[in-house]
Amino acid sequence: MIQLRNRNNGxxxxxxxxxxxxxxxxxxxxxxxxxxxxxxxxGNYCAVICKGGRKITCAQTLKAVASKxxxxxxxxxxxxxxxxxxxxxxxAGDFSMITIDGDIHLPVSRSRRSGFRTFVATxxxxx
Length: 127
Description:
Shape: globular
Radius of gyration: 16 Å
Strand content: over 45%
Strand order of the largest sheet: 7-6-5-9-8
Largest sheet: 5 strands, antiparallel
Number of strands: 12
Number of domains: 1
Oligomer: single chain
Structural class: alpha+beta
Distance between the termini: 27 Å
CATH class: Mainly Beta
């Protein structure tokens, strides 16, 4: 259980470990980790894409958001993408591209391909 105190009114918000919190101009967003499909970085901003099409944009780096999620089914495939492997539906033969939920195509950087191959083999072996 994580406890957060609201700066404005001092109320206490408790969040379970399977959830994380992002803040933006709309307020605090409590997100279940399993619902995250992928995170896309754009400089110091990130868009967290969840199942059902929910998209939350926040002023945090990809590294900061990834550290909040920190689950074994997630992997950073590119400087700009952090994916939930459970949502991957297809991997290109040379591991250069993945498909998520049948219609989202994301690149795997050359420098991360060998690590991604190892991750996939480990993930499949454990499943």
